[in-house]
Every structure is written in structure tokens, then in C-alpha cells.
Amino acid sequence: MEKTRARGGRASSTIIVRPAPGKKTRALVQVGSLTIPAAIGRSGRSILKREGDGATPIAAMKLLYGFTRGDQVQLPQTGLPMRRIRKDMLWCDQSGDANYNRLVKAPFKPSHEDMRRGDGLYDICLVLDWNIGSRRRNRGSAIFFHLIRPGYEPTAGCVAISLRDMRRILPLLRKGTTVRVV
Asked: What gap in Å lies between CA 103 and CA 112, rounded to an integer?
């Protein structure tokens, strides 16, 4: 597995997401020597992740690739494959659909998320391998590492950090970097 370079030249292939003291919807993300505040699911963390439960899965998940709104943000260099979000990009979250937990193209009738969100959360959006490589119905979809809402509001099950912090860690990331939620 490729290693990421942390500050001070130390190699790191894992990002650790730990609960922050006092609030089940807050976390601390450790990338090498950097510690970053984050928001996680409105239901906290769970080892029994289910579609719609609002929990962030307790798991080790590989970073697969990312999306960006190139018209909104400029990316630093990164070893992670990044795709520019188009207007027709959606993510299927309809558990019974054959495209469940996959990128789909509009028009698309089953339940989905718009990758080109108006609120900026997906201006930089990294795809975690949760229920993608081996998909199962109702196990959860669209588990991303993305940008934060103001005030570090909880997510629907993702990990979210500030734009400033995302820009700081992107140069350290590669396809296959593990994000371990503990």
C-alpha cells in the first residue's frame, strides 16, 4: 500500500477518526502529526451501520477517489484521483436499486444525492470504500469524507472537516489511504 507523507517526513498510511470528548457528533481526525476537528453522523458511530440511521460506520475504509467542484474551489496537488463534478452526477441511495451506492447519471428516478450540492459540502468530496467493493442492501450508502457545515453540524454518516483542513491534508492522501473510524 502506498504511504502518505505526514509533516516532518514521517510516512503514514492511515487516517484515524476518534470521537471527541463530550459530543457524539464530533470527532478528531489524526493525519500524521496533524489533529483536525471534524463532524460525524448525527447518531454518532456504529458497528452496525444501516441505511438512513445517521451513524458513521466504525470501520477501516480505503480512500478510493474524490470529486471536486472545480468552479468553486481550487485543489492543491494530491495523489488521490479526483474527478470534476458535472451537473448530471448523482449518487444512488435507494437500497433496492441495482445502482445502490454508486455514481449514476441524471435523469435518475430512484432516491439519490446530488453530487453538485448547492450548500458546498461536496465541493471537495472523497469516496470511502464503505459498502462499495462488496455492496449489500441497507448497509449504508454515500459514506464520504467531505466539507463541513458551519458550526460543525452533524453529518448523515460521513466524516466532515473544514475547507482549510481539507486543503492541508489532500497533499498527504493517495488512493488506498485507510480512514479508520474507531
From this structure: 9
pLDDT tens-place string over residues 145-174: 999 999 999 999 999 999 999 999 999 999
Residue (of 179, 133, 180, 175) closest to 2 by Cα position = 175
Q: What angle do CA 120, 92, 107 make, to 5 degrees?
A: 85
Residue 128 Cα distances to 8, 72, 150, 157, 161, angstroms: 26, 22, 23, 12, 15
* β 144-147/159-161 pair status: parallel
Distance CA 130, CA 101 (A): 9
User: Domain of 89: which CATH number?
Assistant: 2.40.440.10
Q: Domain limits at 103?
A: 4-181
Q: Average pLDDT per run of 10 along the chain, which is 182 residues long?
A: 41 84 96 96 98 98 96 92 97 97 97 96 98 94 97 97 97 95 98
Is residue 157 classed as helix, strand or coil in its secondary structure? Answer: coil
Tally the domains of the chain. Answer: 1
Residue of 167, 131, 130 whose CA lies nearest to 148 = 167
User: Do the Cβ atoms of 71 and 87 come closer than 8 Å?
Assistant: no
CB 160 within 8 A of CB 38: yes
